Amino acid sequence: MRSSNQLLKLRSVAITALVMLGIALVAYELPGILDKKVLNPEQHLTTVIWVGSVYSLFALGYALVFSILGVLNLSHSAVFMWGGYIGVMSVIRYNVPIYYTLPLAMLGGGIIGVLVDLIAFAPLRRRNAPRISQLISSLGASAVLVSLAQLEFGTSPERFPRTTLKELPYEATVARPYSIDWLGAEFRITPLQVSIVFIAFALMLLLQYLVARTKTGKAMRVVAFNQKVAGLLSISVGGIFRLTFFIAGALAGAAGVLYAFAYPSLTPFTGDEMALKGLTVIVLGGLGSIRGAVLGGLLVAAFEVYATAIGYSWLKDALPFAALFLILLFRPQGLLGEATVKRA
Amino acid sequence: MDFISDTLASVGLNEFVITLMFVNAILAMSIYLTLYGGMFSLANAGFMAIGSYVSVILTQNHGWPFFPAILAGMVAAGLIAIPIGLPVLRLRDIYLAIATIGFVEITRIMILNFDKIIAEVYTRLNIDTEPPKITNGPLGIIGIPVETKLEYLVGTVIILSYFMIRMHRSRFGRALAAIRQDENVAASQGINVVYYKNVAFILGAMIAGLGGGFSGHLSRIIQPGSYGFGTAVDILAYSVLGGITSWYGPILGGLALTALPEVLRPLKEYTGLINGVVLLIFIAYLPGGLGDPALWRSVRKTFNRLVNFINKGKTADAGA
After folding, report:
1. pLDDT per residue as tens digits for the range B122-146
2. Which residues pair with B142 in a beta bridge?
3. Residue of A140, A314, A324 lying closest to B113 (CB–CB)
4. Pick from B102, B229, B283: which is nearest to A137 by CB?
5. How many CB pairs under 8 A join A and B?
6. Helix, strand, or coil (residue A264)
7. pLDDT for B12-67, tens place per residue?
8. Whole-complex ipTM
9. Contacts of residue B283 in chain A, CB cutoff 8 Å?
10. Could you tell me which residues come within 8 angstroms of residue B170 by beta carbon, excluding any fewer than 6 positions away?
11. Residue among A74, A86, A27, A66 at smallest CA distance from A272
């Protein structure tokens, strides 16, 4: 058992490495292939990494809920949007120091996540409703959250005030050039973007640790495997569900704040496009797989960045879906997912 | 008749809204067919877009009459469904749903950039003539005359309903029901699973194309933005809220869910909120949907009990 697990791990590492290598190769070979000039491949690579890390962080919540409950939570994108608003509005309205926005948004996102579970999922779960119904009810929850945001914040785009961003240490919003001599690579990046990548990956590692190494994580995996068995083992199934939604919501909230830091336009409809992107991310990587979500986020970001870089920006949205289509046809379990045994 | 239409208009259901309600009822019926076969396909928004664009382009640019154009849109949707259905229908559950969402979005983006693609092809092939503008990008096709009439839609719904009722008892319908309950068992009974699934998918696509053609000739303007993920999930919501245990469920769902925001219109900025809340309440407290036979039985029972109660009261009064 152990050796097969290690094999799986090895395989997923290998696939990840291959895909990353592919992304990097494409970055360098693209100009030659298409006979178009692409400015500075390293620059695009850095963009892929920091945009991709936000996508991955967002998609992780999706993946987590899917792996534990087996349902798609379409309100996840609304929680993401709310996370962004909690961060931005706490600064604008209450002058909260900017460092506190991340924990605030995570807490808020988590609470909203639990509320969504209580209102939209728990009643349906209680009577064993089909998954389609749960999907629709999460859609209803999403509609409610979006219209609440519309009522509270209006529809004009919001952003962190420029002055507060300027007060960040190291002039965090100013792009500065870096170069790696032995690679001959040059790129510009802001300290803010670097910290976004670090925060995102730290949260992802934390989640991976929680699920893989702690007792709670073990309980979560048991619930995902079989709820009845979990009940027999005196695991509080409802509690695990609420915890799952809290964590997923907190991750969405964190992604929302990081998104708000990166892009100066937050509207109640920001979540809508992320909903689809997140879906693509988790399918590409493998539904319900944490490592897969990280890889998928980077892949989707790569598609977007490179499509724009070669001057086909209209392909930006089509490419991830084309990839999704192909992945589903040839490897439905996703790049890093494990095939499930088919039972009659 | 005037009295009825006036009353409906007073709650926000004018003729346009009622026509739209029936268009959405047709769309809801299109997804019922695949759901009846246990296929969780969300592709119908894409087929709706195809039907809509094909029929509108035919009437606007090529001077086709209304009905042949609508039928052509329907056939086009059906034809495109064949190569899509064959590979995609091997997937199940959520995977099928996501793959079909991918199809919907790709269709939308293709329509959005159709002129650009044509222009690119022209330059690659060194064709000197000016590339034609067909779908007109994000602005869409505007100034389409309204040709969809309520009578046509009601007629279509009745014909489709007849078709659905007959379908349940037919070899085709029973095969689909068997596939829904267990694909492997159905296959072991000699049912050609791939064939029946694809036929259901194609028929559903054709109905969606028909609905798309009607909707294209209803709102004066068609834009690729109105056929995306949101529409796909809306169509699913119609049929799920209406109930997928009966053929009339999706019709009820389509009618009710389209009417709901219009009826709530006087609430102004709270419309969206209340709409979502009602959706949540519906799904939480009506497990079988609006068209659930059990729900209507219990409603009738309660109603009878109420009538009996009132009648008893009357006789008691008379006795006293």
Report:
1. 888 887 777 777 777 778 888 788 8
2. B221
3. A314
4. B283
5. 121
6. coil
7. 677 888 888 899 999 999 988 888 888 888 899 999 999 999 999 998 888 888 88
8. 0.82
9. 124, 133, 136-137, 140
10. none
11. A74
